[in-house]
TrEMBL record, chain A:
This is Uncharacterized protein.
From TrEMBL, chain B:
Keywords: Membrane, Transmembrane, Transmembrane helix. Residues 21-291 form the HTTM domain. This is Vitamin K-dependent gamma-carboxylase. It comes from Enhygromyxa salina. It holds the Pfam family HTTM. The keyword DNA-binding does not apply. It comes from the Bacteria. InterPro entries: HTTM_dom. The chain crosses the membrane at residues 32-53, 73-93, 100-116, 128-145, 166-185, 221-244, 256-280.
């Protein structure tokens, strides 16, 4: 068999993989998928973005952090996307209730009596400034409550 | 003075470059490195991979091959596919019936990794691992240092063959394409704001802010640097040069070293200021196809033989293949 013919399968496989790898960037608009991606991470410009969060409150009204694993799993980005998608799909109340059940089952969070799904707007450029330079730098520019729910009283909590 | 022959055509040069002869051991070492990393990933990430099987169905947002499904898999099927990926991965790593088990492993890994990304968040940390594994599965990567090679009985020679050279070249090309696309996306989406450092500063601040607000570990270094916008101008330019300049790594080993070191430092920088670890590039494996990886493997094996000459484990190490006897 001649060399070009012998190499045809390798060339075909190579061409297919290269074309597949480049394809997501050639689409209009470019499309992110897996494992073929246009790798858009860190590329979007965010001025003063909104962040969707779930926060807990105790009986005195003091705010407490809700860990990512109570929302999705230990991957913070997965938790962030779960809240974001729920808010966008108008399912914030459902998500709030699900997380409240997990909070109720968590022995360390017995002091949390209710949850809120909030949209908070921040200015990333001032958030980490020294409070002496900008005392309100880390304060949300705006807060919108998208859902609230009570944490059910678990049997072992009462 | 010797008379120069006719210079090869551009196709001839491309052919020689793409089909650069390499020893069978190069592919074998890549097999062990890439599949070994894949197995560590499958087992190390199992809490996340298997945990996704219990997510609520209304969160299902399939990507890639998982788009074939309308609804999430049952837990049993998902666990079985993960197990298939692990078991076939062990067999493929050992080079046991590689032609059969490697494609099975590659497809199972593709499925498991895609499934992990099918819940609203597409991670970009494992794309190259999956692409490299898919390519490896189509290559004669068990012709040396494998159970297949032992069973076959024919001793592998150190002869260089184009069959073993184009696969690593393709893997390296896929690596460089990924970086070029990342650079293009930054220019396309952020444009001038990327080059003046503003977009990078915003990203570093936003990413760390998000982690603080969501109760995760953030980078104190990245947070502190946000007070010094000028720092982000050279960082933005450096990342752009490294990403768009990735193809130079394919042009020669010295350039490959220079680019790889730069890119590795880039990933260490990302980890330091954003607390985001791209483990496959940080481990160096994303760049391994650019190099003659059999050389350090043989060197390490020789050292191990000198240090523990009676160990039975030495049988597992790669051996230098006999040089082919030339006729006449």
């Amino acid at each position: 068999m001649s060399a070009p013919l012998r190499r045809a399968p390798a060339l075909l496989v190579s061409a297919l993989f290269v074309a597949a790898a480049v394809w997501p960037a050639l689409r209009e608009p470019p499309r992110d998928s897996f494992p073929l991606s246009n790798y858009p991470m860190f590329s979007t410009v965010r001025d003063k973005p909104w962040l969707d969060v779930i926060v807990g409150f105790d009986a005195e009204g003091e705010e407490h952090e809700i860990r990512p694993n109570l929302v999705a799993n230990i991957e913070v980005m997965q938790a962030a996307q779960t809240i974001r998608r729920a808010v966008r799909a108008r399912r914030a109340k459902l998500l709030c209730a699900r997380v409240a059940e997990r909070v109720a089952a968590d022995g360390e969070l017995g002091h949390i009596v209710r949850l809120e799904v909030q949209r908070r707007r921040f200015d990333p450029r001032t958030y980490f400034l020294d409070p002496e330079v900008d005392p309100d730098g880390a304060t949300p520019l705006a807060v919108r409550r998208k859902a609230r729910c009570r944490v059910p009283v678990a049997k072992d909590r009462s | 003075m010797t008379e120069a022959g006719p210079s090869p055509s551009i196709w001839g040069r491309l052919d020689r470059w793409w089909f650069e002869p390499a020893p069978a051991l190069r592919l074998a070492v890549l097999r062990v490195l890439i599949l070994g990393y894949g197995l560590i990933w499958l087992i190390g990430f199992s809490p996340m991979l298997l945990g996704a099987l219990r997510f609520e169905p209304d969160r299902f947002a399939p990507v890639g091959v998982v788009s074939l499904l309308d609804a999430p898999l049952g837990v049993g099927v998902g666990v079985a596919l993960w197990l298939l990926a692990v078991v076939s991965g062990v067999a493929a790593l050992l080079g046991w019936r590689f032609r059969l088990v490697a494609p099975v492993h590659a497809l199972a890994l593709l499925w498991v990794a895609s499934y992990r990304n099918s819940w609203g968040m597409v991670f970009h940390t494992d794309n190259l691992l999956v692409m490299h594994t898919l390519i490896l599965a189509l290559l004669p990567a068990s012709d040396a240092w494998s159970l297949d090679a032992r069973r076959g009985g024919a001793p592998a020679t150190s002869a260089l063959d184009p069959r073993y050279g184009w696969g690593p070249k393709l893997m390296a090309t896929i690596t460089t394409i990924a970086y070029v696309l990342a650079g293009v996306a930054k220019l396309r989406n952020a444009g001038g704001a990327w080059l003046d450092g503003g977009a990078l500063l915003n990203h570093v601040a936003w990413d760390n802010l998000r982690k603080v607000e969501l109760g995760a570990t953030h980078s104190p270094l990245g947070a502190a640097l946000c007070a010094y916008p000028a720092v982000f101008v050279p960082l933005a330019w450096m990342s752009m040069v490294l990403e768009l300049g990735a193809p130079i790594a394919l042009l020669g080993r010295r350039l490959a070293w220079a680019w790889t070191i730069g890119m590795w430092c880039f990933h260490i920088g990302v980890a330091a200021i954003m607390a985001i670890v791209f483990a496959y590039p940080v481990s160096g494996l994303a760049f391994a196809p650019l190099f003659a990886v059999e050389v350090p493997a043989l060197s390490l094996a020789a050292r191990a033989r000198a240090r523990w000459p009676k160990s039975r484990l030495l049988a597992l190490l790669p051996t230098p293949a006999p040089t082919p006897i030339s006729p006449g």
